[in-house]
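anyone seen this seq b4? input:
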Amino acid sequence: MWPGRRVRQDSGMALAPSRARPASLRAAGRADSDYGAPGRPDWRGVDWRAHLHDLELDGRRVHYVDLGQGDGPPVVFVHGLGGCWQNFLENIPAAAERRRTIALDLPGFGRSELPAGDVSITNYARTVEGLCEALGLGPTVVVGNSMGGFVAADLALLAPERVERLALVAAAGITSTDVRREPARTFIRAGAAMTAIGAREIEQFLIRPRARQLAYGWVVRHPTRLAPDLLWEQAQGVGKPGFLLALDALSSYDFRERLPEIACPTLVVQGTDDMIVPLRDAYEFERLIPRSRTLIMLDTGHLAMLERAATFNQALLEFLDAPAAEAAPPGEQVVEA
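predicted toks r here
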């Protein structure tokens, strides 16, 4: 399915915050050609305004993008902490060529209003379920990154009939649940940085390589290899009112004992140099979810779907198209750096 060699799995190792460290500017020059390669079709060719919508759920506005059509369950993208639907700009056009594709701003992020009730992982999952129901989507393929992976997996537990397949990209929900007992410094550092720096300030960072490395080096492996306009779009998710509430929700909910209940085929994607979610978390998801497999991307940080968009899209489309019995055969594949 994917080229590469196996990486040793050690499920017996105690889970701990990631030990990955930022790459240097010089290291970016040694990255392989797959790193930063754009997805196809180019997201810049899409008239996004024509596909943006707002829907009222529980008395609050939820913002989402909706495009594409085709046979098979629709694809729903769910962003992470401090994110927005633009976190999947490189992936939505590719999925929309095959299926109806939706990406939303979770409540309190992007252009979605804070929820009327409590902020929690399960309530986020209920929002995704409510949006799917309102749009008449039926069974879906849910793709979640970071906190969005936590939400997506919880949706598969909350409404298994809604999730036909599940893709977890650097998903939270394993190490993140130990944040109170073993402080996950990467989450806290990321939160402090992104709430203190606004989108306008980040725009100034994009024109200077060293500053770009400083602003984004904790979340992507080689910021200078990613297009400035793509990074600018990611900045639209920072400084939103839901951030600190969501950070608390991440650390106050533990669903690990229930993960074996997820029955749908599951693809677990993880970068080896993710500073926020450690590689071992991917192996733990694979161990706990019966019909799962991992795709490990070398020399890759927390946003594999943007850092290696072309390879990620190919893997995702193969996952969508594979017969259910073949969608997640046991094992692990590695993308060579």
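The longest strand covers residues 60-67. Residues 40 and 215 are 26 Å apart (CA to CA). kinda curious what u guys think
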